[in-house]
C-alpha cells in the first residue's frame, strides 16, 4: 500500500480477539506464524529496497514471539535506510503482566533496543489501540510511564465503533487521560472498507466528523487526533 513502509507479522497469537482487527482472520484460520528464517528473509527484502524507511512490527501480538522479535530488530538495526520501527501491541491494555512480570524485564529489553537503535539513528516507537476510557488501567499507566521516561514514544490509534465510542464526550475523556499520561495522540479510524464481522460496529463518517468536532471544541489541540478513513490508496484525512 505504501512505498516507504512495510509490515512485519511476527506471530498470529494474541491475548485478545479484537472484532475490528484487520488480521483476525489469520488467527481464526490458525495460520502458522513465521519462523526466524522467514523474518530474516523479510529483513533481506527490506535491505534490498532502499526506499523502505519505516517498519511496523505487528501480528498477532509481536511481543509473544521474542525469537522473531529479536531477529527482526537485530536485522533491521543493520539496515542503514530504515529510520523508524514501530511495535504494535494490545498487551499493554489486555495483558499488562507481560510487561510487568520478572521485574519488568520486557520493559528493560525494549529500552535496551531503543538505545541500540538510536545509536544507528533509528527511532523505536510503541503503538497501542484503545477504544474507550474504561480500558485505561493502573497497570497500563505504569507501563506507559516506564516507557516514556526511558525516551520511548507511545502512541494511540482508535477505531470509531458504533455503540462503543461514537459519543464525542467519551472520546474526549479517552484522549485527555492518555495525553496526561504521556501518550502521543495519533488517529481515529472511521473505516469505509467493510471488515468481516464488523457490521455491528459500523458508523457513518458524518457521525465521526460530529464527534471530532466535539473534541475540537472541548480539548487542547495537543489532545486531538487526526480523523482518518481507509481507502485502497491508504489512510486519508
Question: Key terms for this structure?
Answer:
alpha/beta, 40% helix, 8 helices, 8-stranded mixed sheet
Describe this structure in words.
With 237 residues, the chain is α/β, with parallel strands linked by helices. It has 8 helices and 8 strands. It has helices at residues 24-28, 36-47, 66-77, 91-94, 97-119, 138-148, 168-181, 205-218; strands spanning 5-9, 54-58, 84-89, 123-129, 153-159, 184-189, 226-231, 234-236. The protein has an 8-stranded mixed beta sheet. Strand 4 (123-129), helix 6 (138-148) and strand 5 form a beta-alpha-beta unit. Helix 2 (36-47) packs parallel to helix 3 (66-77). The longest helix is centred in the middle third of the chain and has 23 residues, at 97-119. It is globular, with a radius of gyration of 18 Å.
The profile of the biggest β sheet is: 8 strands, mixed
Approximately how much helix is present in the residues?
A: 40-55%
- Count of helices? 8
Mean pLDDT comes to 93
Radius of gyration: 18 Å
Find the count of extended strands (DSSP E, 2+ residues).
8
Q: Which runs of at least 5 residues are low in confidence (pLDDT < 50)?
A: none
The termini sit apart by 16 Å
Strand composition percent: 15-25%
Order of helices and strands: EHHEHEHHEHEHEHEE
Classification by helices and strands:
alpha/beta
SSE map:
Blueprint: E1 5-9, H1 24-28, H2 36-47, E2 54-58, H3 66-77, E3 84-89, H4 91-94, H5 97-119, E4 123-129, H6 138-148, E5 153-159, H7 168-181, E6 184-189, H8 205-218, E7 226-231, E8 234-236
In short:
This protein has about 240 residues and is α/β, with parallel strands linked by helices.
